[in-house]
Amino acid sequence: MGKKIKMHIIDRDVTAVLxxxxxxxxxxxxxxxxISMQRWGDEYYGDCGLxxxxxEGARTEMEVGEIAIWPSGxxxxxxxxxxxxxxxxKPMAISPVNPVGKIEGSVEWLKKLGGSIDITMEKx
Length: 124
Prior knowledge:
By secondary structure, the chain is mainly beta. The protein has a single domain (about 5-124), classed as Cyclophilin (Beta Barrel), CATH 2.40.100.20. It contains one helix and nine strands. The protein has one helix at about 20-30, and strands spanning about 5-10, 10-20, 35-40, 45, 60, 65-70, 75-80, 90-105, 115-124. An eight-stranded antiparallel barrel has the order 1-2-8-6-7-4-3-9.
């Protein structure tokens, strides 16, 4: 099992499990962190200050609940449904992202949130 992080979004605490990638390890080392995020379809993204290269395994098609780092924007991305570039019901990033983990449990409630959110993250 990978390292776990706690994400506080509005009035909820959720847990995410990180994968074993270099990007995930670098992200974990940044914590604790507070990020202001903007909504783009059913994705939230925000600058986390992490500068990384595209890793092997980077992709644009994501799964609901996945979190990733977008190297082009040094941004953390949370995917919870289709984005404006999705051609199916799956989340799609605008350009390749490095997957770093997945939120445990349902993320459907994210669809009810507004155009911007602040989140805090810490190591578990």
